[in-house]
Write a structure and sequence with these properties.
Chain lengths: 315, 605
């Protein structure tokens, strides 16, 4: 009793002094959200406990960045310490100036007008980029290496993804350089995915390239299964796709990226200005190969250089 | 009176205080200085070790890349082996994570193979790179390290080119992402917050534990350049300066020679000198305690010194005022206590000596000075009451009452003064006891308190001298028209003698019939006559001529006594001083003329 009586004011004091930070999480996708998981993990690693010293308010507007604009205006009025926008949601945030905004993008934040330069963002935006644009050609090249006879490539892309057009252009360029005909299959939102897969299946392509994106990420199992069913060797952007049955993936570790985004969140909550925090570019690119899928597809990977270059081989 | 007292106190106080505090402060200062020096040396060493270690690892990093690149330029270029070279390149990328892309250049300087982690690979005859500084540099020096550049204004990159042993082996040019040095630098921790950083020779940041500073591409390059030039000037020893974040730091620079980079190891001054600051605080607290202790000790010591001295001073003052019974109590068990004991002894002796001199002064009232001294120094009990054989002499002026009726008071006093003087001188010269003057009368005692030989003889001679002296004076008075004479009576017998008095007025006196008898004889005596009783006569009749003047009835005596008068005065008188000797001769004749009839008359009786 005495102990409790003594402890109570101390606890109250501690609670009073420890500020509870309010973070908005904005996404155009639906839950489950693998990016959010990565971010939460990063926050926990830095000593944040949800509900105790940080509150995450999740705002999802599936496939509708417009809906997030309202959230953005709410953001300006409310006492929000930080906003984190994932993928396309960042588009809805461009007008926000009052609150620091962290983003994670596949595309180029300079091109999107979010930051002045990668080294010195100069505004209230900073975050991470996956360099998907640069890697777009590399993915085509790796597919070509595994399938030297690759002639027609189906490209599945979520058109709502920011920078998607640039990625498509880069892919097209690379494919043409390698003598491949790309077959572009765009879709908007989860509703159109099945339809798009059907289109891709009808394209009689030799392989399938899927742009990394939260929507394809969420439905990676379905897409991988579709590829195997249609005997399409597939190439993805993140290793999670391979874990779900994709043949190949090449790109930055998205989980690590969101994890490191949490360290930026920590620094901003501690008072640093986003203007001085350079946009993080990935250093390591993972090449993951799923040998089981290769066997199912009857592809002999030993002939190519892919296996010794792989960072991880799923057997 | 106060200021010297305070100054003595202050002197002692300050001396003791300084004596304790100075060594303490000197000790602390020396210790602090040595501690500071050791700390500085230690810090220098730590920073040196860390910076050197970082520089070595950076060198190992670049050397490792160089060596790995060397593998792909071991064989001369041949036709149609581009694909094999491509595989070599891809394996190298696999082997060295820092290499982002690789160009293999044939001996003509043409790029044949390009592999990259990000961009698409190329094989076959490519661009002419023979003018590329990397190719030129590698051709000249086998190994070439390019300048640091920032890709997309953010990430630091550097190109390294390596040429094969023979020109035919071609050249490989690798693009290195220097972000990977971060692991080396981030691993270096100096104390809690100290760290290392790397800048190139233009002062641009290459590696820092806070990677975002590096990725800021040259922002704050001025700060780093300044830091680099300041620290480099110290030539490998630690300097105190301002760090990149504006905080004061202690920093040391070591060069990574092959790439011309500078590794700076730094630690915030606050942390670097934490231990010395703690030591200084300890010293300061010790000094403070020491000062308080010294203050108390010095005050206590000075008080112990000053207190007794004040007591002594006060004692001297009281003694000076005559308080000889004042005593000082000092119990310090040292020289001061000794001094106090001496002082008390001195006060006691002073008191005794004062009493003695008072007694002597009193004795001198009725004793000749030399007798008084004798009494004082021989035996105090001489003055005690006792009964003894004494000779009493009474003298009295004749016709003085009549004189006083006529004369002016001044004249009377002048006469008395001369008279007393003469009597006093004679009495003193015979070492007799002058008991008192009473107006024109005088009483002298012999054999008391100091015993003398043959007191009767001495008394008669004294009386003769007295007569001579007074008669001489009387002549001069008579010349001025006063008829004054002098008669003397002498008696001998037992009397009670002793000091007697009240409140310091102490008199030595004799009580007994002999005194009365002498007084009566004096009354009986005529001018210039000396009457003696039968007792005296019995003692002196052999040496001094006496004539009986017949029996007389004396008051207080049952029967008449035969009285004698000194008929002849023998001259010169012994023990008489010169003044009276000369003075005596002349008037003696006249005296004799004048008294002759009386003497004869007496003889006739």
């Amino acid at each position: 009793m005495v102990g409790a009586a003594l402890a109570c004011p101390a606890a109250a004091l501690a609670q009073e002094s420890a500020r509870v930070y309010r973070i908005f999480w904005l996404s155009t996708q639906s839950q489950p959200d693998p990016f959010l998981d990565g971010f939460r993990e990063g926050l926990r690693a830095r000593g944040y406990v949800e509900g105790k010293n940080v509150v995450l308010e999740l705002h999802y507007a599936i496939g509708n960045p417009q809906a997030l604009r309202e959230v953005a205006s709410e953001l300006r009025r409310g006492k929000v310490d930080l906003a984190v926008s994932s993928g396309p949601a960042t588009r809805a945030m461009t007008a926000v100036e009052e609150v620091p905004v962290l983003f994670a993008l596949s595309g180029d934040p300079v091109e999107l007008g979010l930051v002045k330069s990668v080294g010195q963002p100069g505004g209230n935006f900073t975050g991470s980029t996956f360099l998907s644009l640069e890697l777009a050609g590399k993915r085509v090249e790796l597919l070509k290496e595994v399938l030297p006879n690759l002639r027609k490539l189906a490209v599945l892309s979520n058109a709502n993804h920011p920078g998607e057009q640039s990625e498509w252009r880069a892919t097209k360029e690379a494919a043409e350089k390698l003598g491949i005909v790309p077959h572009y299959v765009p879709f908007s939102g989860a509703d159109e995915l099945d339809n798009a897969l059907g289109l891709a299946g009808e394209a009689r392509a030799d392989a399938l390239l899927v742009f990394p994106d939260v929507l394809t990420m969420v439905h990676r199992g379905k897409i991988a299964d579709f590829a195997i069913a249609h005997r399409l060797p597939s190439m993805f952007g993140w290793s999670e796709y391979c874990d779900a049955g994709g043949l190949l993936s090449y790109g930055a570790n998205q989980r690590a990226t969101y994890f490191s985004l949490a360290s930026y969140a920590d620094r901003i909550l501690r008072g640093e200005r986003p203007a001085n925090l350079p946009v993080v570019q990935p250093t390591k690119f993972e090449l993951v190969v799923n040998l089981r899928t290769a066997e199912l597809l009857g592809i002999d990977l030993d002939k190519s250089s892919v296996l010794f270059r792989a960072n991880r081989v799923i057997e | 009176m106060n200021s010297p007292r305070r100054s003595l106190f202050m002197k002692y106080f300050v001396t003791l205080f300084v004596a304790v505090v100075t060594p303490l402060m000197l000790g602390s200062a020396t210790e602090a200085w040595f501690a500071f020096r050791d700390n500085r040396l230690y810090l220098n060493e730590i920073l040196q070790v860390e910076a050197r270690s970082a520089a070595d690892r950076i060198q190992a990093f670049t050397d490792g890349i160089r060596d790995q690149l060397g593998w792909v330029v071991q064989f001369p270029w041949t036709q149609g082996e581009d694909d094999r070279r491509r595989i070599d390149g891809l394996r190298l990328l696999q082997q060295v994570p820092a290499i982002v892309s690789l160009s293999m250049v044939d001996p003509t300087g043409t790029e044949r193979v390009f592999v990259s982690r990000v961009s698409m690979n190329r094989t076959g005859r490519g661009t002419d790179m023979s003018a590329d500084p990397a190719v030129v540099g590698a051709r000249a020096n086998r190994v070439w390290y390019g300048p640091v550049h920032y890709r997309r204004d953010s990430e630091p990159y550097m190109r390294i080119a390596v040429a094969g042993n023979r020109a035919a082996a071609g050249i490989v040019v690798a693009d290195i992402n220097l972000k990977l040095i971060w692991d080396i630098i981030a691993a270096i921790k100096i104390g809690d917050t100290g760290h290392a950083l790397v800048v190139d020779d233009t002062g641009r940041l290459i590696a820092h534990p806070d990677i975002s500073l590096v990725l800021r591409s040259g922002a704050g390059a001025g700060d780093f350049n300044r830091l680099k030039s300041v620290v480099s000037e110290a030539n490998g020893s630690a300097v105190s300066t301002t760090g990149e974040d504006g905080e004061p730091v202690v920093a040391l620079a070591v060069r990574a020679a092959n790439v011309d980079w500078t590794v700076i190891a730094e630690q915030p001054v606050l942390e670097a000198f934490e231990s010395i600051r703690a030591a200084l605080w300890r010293s300061l607290i010790l000094i403070a305690i020491g000062i308080v202790f010294a203050f108390v000790l010095a005050y206590w010591r000075a008080s112990r010194m000053w207190g007794p001295i004040r007591q002594l001073e006060d004692g001297v003052e009281r003694i000076g005022m005559g308080q000889f019974d004042h005593r000082i109590t000092i119990q310090s068990r040292d020289e001061l206590e000794q001094l106090a004991i001496r002082f008390n002894q001195m006060a006691e002796e002073l008191g005794a000596s004062q009493q003695k001199s008072e007694r002597i002064n009193r004795l001198k009232q009725f004793l000749a000075p030399q007798v008084a001294e004798l009494v004082e120094h021989s035996d105090q009990r001489l003055l005690d009451a006792r009964r003894r054989e004494v000779v009493a002499i009474f003298g009295d002026l004749r016709g003085f009452t009549a004189f006083t009726a006529r004369a002016e008071p001044d004249a009377i006093l002048a006469v008395l003064r001369q008279y007393y003087e003469a009597i006093g001188a004679v009495t003193a010269s015979h070492e007799a006891t002058l008991i008192r003057f009473a107006g024109d009368g005088v009483m002298v005692l012999l054999n008391a308190p100091v015993a003398c030989e043959d007191p009767a003889q001495r008394a008669v001679r004294l009386a003769i001298d007295m007569q001579a002296a007074v008669q001489f004076l009387a002549n001069s008075w008579n010349a001025r028209g006063c008829a004054i004479g002098f008669g003397v009576g002498i008696a001998m017998g037992p009397a009670t003698v002793g000091a007697l008095g009240w409140h310091g007025r102490l008199d030595y006196t004799a009580i007994g019939n002999v005194v009365n008898l002498a007084s009566r004889l004096c009354d009986l005596a005529e001018d210039a006559q000396i009457l003696v009783d039968p007792a005296v006569t019995g003692h002196v009749k052999d040496s001094i001529a006496l004539a009986s003047i017949g029996e007389r009835t004396i008051k207080g005596y049952d029967h008449a006594l035969e009285i004698f008068a000194v008929s002849r005065i023998y001259a010169p008188i012994r023990h008489f001083d010169h003044r009276f000797q000369t003075a005596y001769v002349q008037p003696a004749e006249t005296e004799f003329d004048r008294i002759a009839p009386k003497l004869s008359l007496t003889d006739a009786d």
